[in-house]
Automatic annotation (TrEMBL):
Biased composition (Low complexity): 20-39
Listed Gene3D superfamilies: P-loop containing nucleotide triphosphate hydrolases (3.40.50.300)
InterPro entries the UniProt entry points to: P-loop_NTPase
UniProt name for this protein: RNA helicase
Signal peptide, first to last residue: none
Start and end residues of each stretch annotated as Disordered: 1-48
Chain intervals with Basic residues compositional bias: 1-11
């Protein structure tokens, strides 16, 4: 039998002698580096650049992404009301008047601002016509107006 069987080494069975001390020093060095990196990150976060927006000149932001195409723009108010009635859409409290609310679209392609890849993805999903809330909300939002839309779920 070996004499060392059942006995621990001088270091108490924790990696032995000098190599254990080197490992402990390396771990403590790594821990110190990690702490230094964390402290630097905190310092960087606390010293972020503060921009005084009142002193900067910005170009005006245009919210108008969609101008109704000619075929929709030329439709009479009666056609718009009929389309809304068919879809079960009610327009309330438009400050410009209900007649100025964009006409609901009958297809996603009518929007004419959606990129081809998006129209292709919509077609692959077999979404042929927008849901009623989409049909009315998309033209309103893309023309730069605010909207609160309420729709049935399910």
């Amino acid at each position: 039998r070996s004499r060392s069987r059942g006995r621990r080494s001088r270091s108490g069975g924790r990696g032995g002698g000098r190599s254990g001390a080197l490992e402990a020093a390396a771990m403590s060095d790594a821990s110190a580096r990690a702490q230094a990196a964390a402290d630097q990150a905190k310092e960087d976060a606390n010293s972020t650049l503060v921009v005084d927006w009142s002193k900067t000149q910005r170009s005006p932001f245009q919210r108008l992404f969609l101008r109704p195409p000619g075929n929709i723009d030329a439709q009479s108010a009666a056609i718009a009301f009929a389309r809304r009635a068919q879809l079960g859409i009610q327009v309330e409290s438009d400050p410009r008047g209900v007649d100025s609310t964009p006409v609901p679209v009958g297809s996603f392609a009518e929007l004419q601002v959606l990129p081809p890849w998006l129209l292709s993805a919509v077609g692959e999903c077999r979404w042929e016509v927008p849901m009623p809330v989409q049909a009315q909300a998309l033209p309103i939002l893309l023309s730069g107006r605010n909207l609160i839309g309420i729709a049935q779920t399910g």
